[in-house]
Every structure is written in C-alpha cells, then in structure tokens.
Amino acid sequence: MGRRDGPPYQAPSDPGDNGRVPGVDEIADELYALPPAQFTPARDAHVQQARQDGDATAAKSIASLRRPTVNAWLVNLLALKRSGLVADLFELGDALREAQRQLNGAALRDLSARRREVLDSLLAQVRQLAVEHGVASPAPAALNEVKDTLAAALADDEVAGQVRAGRMLKTVSYAGFGQGPEVEAATPTSLSTSDRKAVASASAEVDRAERALSDAQAAEKTANELVEQINSSIADLRARLPLAQEEAREATRVRKAAEKEAAAARHRLSRIDGG
C-alpha cells in the first residue's frame, strides 16, 4: 500500500488539556488509531509520561502494547472510528448464523448478498479513513486483507473480540463463512455428520462465489468507466476536428501567400543585382 507517514507524533502534555490523565485503554485506543509509523514513538512517549507520573503499572501495560501491521491498523482504525458500522456487520453475522441453523436457503442468499454490500461499504470507509490519517488510499491487496479479516471475525469469536476492540496486530483469513466451530455446533443435531459437512461446504461455496461476483462487478465497473472516458475523449476530438481542419487550411493559405511574397522579393532582388 502506498503511504505517507503524516505529521510526526506530538508527545502528550502532562495531564490532558482538561486536566485529566488518560487511562491505559484510552491510550491504547489512541495508539491503535495512529498510522504504524507513529505507533512506537507515541507509545514510548506515553510510557515516559506514566513513569514521570509515578504509575509503574500503567507504564508496564502501555509498554507491552505492540505495533500492528499497516493492514491490521486499517482494521483497527475502522473499528475505533466507525464502531457503529462494524457492530452492524456483526449483527448481520448473527442473522446469517440463525439462517444456517434453520437451513433457510432464501434467507442465506439474501443475507449473504447484504453482507457483501456491508463489507464493500466498510472498505470504502477504510479508504476514506486512511487518507484522513495521512496515508495513501490502500491498494486492492490491502483491502482484500481487511475484508478477509472482517469475514474471519464473523466466524471466530476470538478474532471478533480483537476487531471490536481495535487491537488487531496482523490480518487473518478464514476458509469461508460457515466453517467455524461455533457455526458447526449450531447446526441441528438431527443432521448426520455428512449432512453437516455438506451444509458447511455449500455455505463456503456461496461465499466464494459471491466474492468472485463482487470482484467481477468491480472489474466490470472499472472497464466501463474506462470505455466511458475513451468515448468522451473521442467525442471531444471529433468536436474539435472541424476547427483544427479550418486552422490547418488557414495555415496553408498563409504559407502559400508567404511563398508568393518571398518569390516576388527574390525576383526583385535578382533584377537589382542584374542591373
């Protein structure tokens, strides 16, 4: 992902502007919302401040915080700055699991489509937040890692907890929605083992197909935009062609007149020299 580190981190003032010393969780939220290039100096500044305040426990807790990867930071930034939208995604995940328990195919299709829309909306937020925090818009590969991590959080409670808290250190992936242990356990016990595997496999296949569809739609949109730009350029050139042709004709007329004038001047000069 192309990046700009943004302005250097400013060390915290003694107590905050309102006279209140921030807690460790609040400091952690601040740190994990910073671009990774600013994480370590900011953390060390808070550790130093805690030591100056005589709070060895806070200093140790803050010092234990680890810098995230750039793509994990994007997930943290989304969770910390758009927590309501992330909560909506998890609510949608709950609805998907309920539809799986009931083996409700129609609901699964509708909810899966909705999940794709929500994920795409969250990725748009990621792009916006990255730029707002002084980093270039994430590359498609980075956004795919963010998307994989959010999808994994829907199927894994541990990942979900890290995402909700904005504490991811690296991105993760999952082998398709519906294959997590908690989802398998939620499958009706009346089904045989082979049936449960078939349900999980079919759900994963739906997820892969929908992701492929999303990628194809994005590629189609990009191609159509390019065609539109080219058609617009062609139309503009066609509109400018008559004027350019007229200018060319006028330039030809001026050139021929200049040639005649030059020829006449050379003829006069030769007569004078001959005289």
Structural summary, described in words:
The protein is mostly helical and 275 residues long. It has 2 domains: 1-67, no CATH class; 70-229, no CATH class. The protein is 75% helix and 0% strand. The protein has helices at 24-32, 36-52, 56-63, 70-81, 83-101, 105-132, 140-155, 157-165, 181-185, 193-274. Helix 2 packs antiparallel against helix 3 (56-63). It is elongated. Residues 1-20 and 176-191 have low confidence and may be disordered.
Descriptive tags:
275 residues, mainly alpha, single chain, disordered N terminus
Let me know the number of strands. Answer: 0
Instruction: Describe the largest sheet.
Output: none
| End-to-end distance | 81 Å
Specify the overall morphology: elongated
Question: How many domains?
Answer: 2
* Average pLDDT number: 78
Instruction: State the helix count.
Output: 10
Uncertain regions spanning at least 5 consecutive residues? 1-20, 176-191
What structural class do you assign from the helix and strand content?
mainly alpha
Strand content: under 5%
How would you concisely characterize the structure shown here?
The chain is an all-alpha fold and 275 residues long. It has two domains: 1-67, no CATH class; 70-229, no CATH class.
Topology diagram in text:
Elements: H1 24-32, H2 36-52, H3 56-63, H4 70-81, H5 83-101, H6 105-132, H7 140-155, H8 157-165, H9 181-185, H10 193-274
Helix pairs in contact: 2-3, 4-5, 4-6, 4-7, 5-6, 6-7, 6-10, 7-8
